[in-house]
Request: fold
Amino acid sequence: MVSSEFWIIQTFNGLSYGALLFLLASGLSLIFGVMRVVNLAHGSYFMLGGYVGLSVVWRTGSFAAAVLAGAVAIGLIGIAMERLFLRRLPGQTLGQVLMTIGFALIFQDLALLIWGGDPYSIPVPRFLQGAVRAGALSFPTYRIFIIVVAVVVAALLWLALDRTRVGARIRAAVDDGEMAQGVGINVPTLSLAVFGLGACLAAAGGVIGGAFLGVYPGADFEVLPYAFVVVIVGGLGSLPGAMVGSLLVGLLDNFGKALFPELSYFTLFAPMALILALRPTGLFGRA
Amino acid sequence: MSRRTIAVLALATFLLALVAGLGTETARAQGGPIKIGFLSPLTGAASALGKDMLNGTELYLDEIGRQVAGRKIELIVEDTEGNTQTALTKARKLVDQDHVHILSGGLLASTGYAIHPFAEAQKIPTTYPVMSSDDLTQRKPAKWVVRTGWNSSQSTHALGDWVIKNTKYRKVAAVAADYAFGWESVGGFQRTFEEGGGQIVQKVWIPLNTNDFAPFLSQVKRDADAVFAVFFGKLALQFMKEYESNGLRGRVPLLSNGTTVDESVLPQMGDEALGTISTLHYSAALENPTNQRFAKAFEAKAGKIPSYYAETCYTNARWITEAIKAVGGKVEDREALLVALRKVELKDFPRGPVKIDTFGNPVQNVYIRKVERVGGKLQNTVFFTYPNVSQFWKYNPEEFLKLPLYTRDYPPCKSC
Reply:
């Protein structure tokens, strides 16, 4: 069974799952980096994004519009959460955690109220259906699409963070918020923008992921541990960390499930524990 | 009046009041409403199924004006949150505080096993419309529990037989959710299929917390003649979609148990589900007059086509009221009510004729169905019927029960 074909297909599967995890986790990582907020409602952005996308697809039939609407709507929710609530608890880690988990539970009930409990799947446009054949191998087109989207998003984020003034300010705020504030960087506004962006990315991931993971009650808390593992492995607040972490988790999860299905949590969490023991700040994190 | 007299008088008055109170209590119980306690997951991940269960139950009770044998029926609904511990707590509340006469409902197999000893200890007549674990009515039956639904391997025994007799598929790969329901459904199929000369060439167990099916589906042997799948809810939805995008649809024909294409998920599926051949004791597309009427009424009430969860709870409600009629409304006589519950036999449930075996499981039709698009909508068209299927298929119950329960590794996969 363990042929080269197996390794190619499983690596591809792992990469595509990692790509989706990157969309989810990069925002979480950035938010933590700038604001030191452990946002337990991040999975909710993923789920709500999927639901909003679903409603838009039903009405307009357009997948692109669904991704856009989901990202914008949830981005606004993220901004409101930060501006109206989280900002009132600066530096209070426990208070913030409790508040975000409270939001997560409220979002869960709201979603149940609005969209009901039935599981749905977001329909994919024709040109993304089917598979690309290469000899005996076949690669689902939609998964190729996810990888492309993640690469584009990663490149844009990297350019923005590394090559622009705003990016430089964000990096400054990640390194030392107080000092950044001291030299005249408006950290609160920056935080707001980063929080909105993080929510946007998670929601876009929710719409895109909704096409193969489905949109259903409970999706929020199912994806959240994955996002945390990515961020912890990669290092909190680091974009390269989120990239490498997503790929690593995607591949580990995939090979773990393919080779040792009974141990799939072990193969995911044991490396995480190991990395934490050897490098407590994650692969790319700084103390 | 001496102090002593006053004390005696007070005591007497107190005793009188007590006796009078007891009297009215008994009188009230006899003439008061018949209380049915219903457990359903109304919040949490399974809430959509819970709503179907409740809608089905209410639909029947409303049809008879919530009244039977001259007494009113009071339905007391408790939310289990899809959690067995909560379900057991709520069952206690229904019996201890609400003093229900009949306990019913429940979704998860673990809930079934938890309520079993409770019903026995309380001697409370109990019905299970949904919970389908084989052993609830096989190796661990409970005197006070009557199953009005089905058991997991009942319909898959039939499918294994059908595939042998009607197709050329001889090598089948099983892809199923990794828990008791999946194991039992696969076990039933494997037994009849292999006894007929087929081979299960692979068993791919998919953990319930799976998000991504690709690592599992890319392992499915491409030379299998067909795949037999067992899923439910969102897993079914994802499975169907991933079966197509991983290039299996069109190459390897798909067989499944009933829940994989149940009407609780079928409307949310697309063309990827077309052609799937499945087996269950119900289909919303059954053409008998009772089902036609039921399906129409359910759609009017709930705004969606009935799932098997809806039908089984509708039937369950009717089953209970038939038993109440048989005891003339005297539900306080629990033994008599239990006997009556075990005697219900009707020809015209939406799912067809049903009677009950000595272990407390229904003997009923099993339908072989195919997903088709009719009038723009997907449905499970019934094209073959196995009449009066027992939970023991065609085997002798005693010999059947000597073998182990179907599990992950039983029957063993000899051809894997």
Observations:
- Chain A has one domain: 4-278.
- Chain A touches chain B through 43 residues (CB under 8 Å).
- The longest strand of chain A covers residues 131-134.
- Chain A has a mean pLDDT of 90.
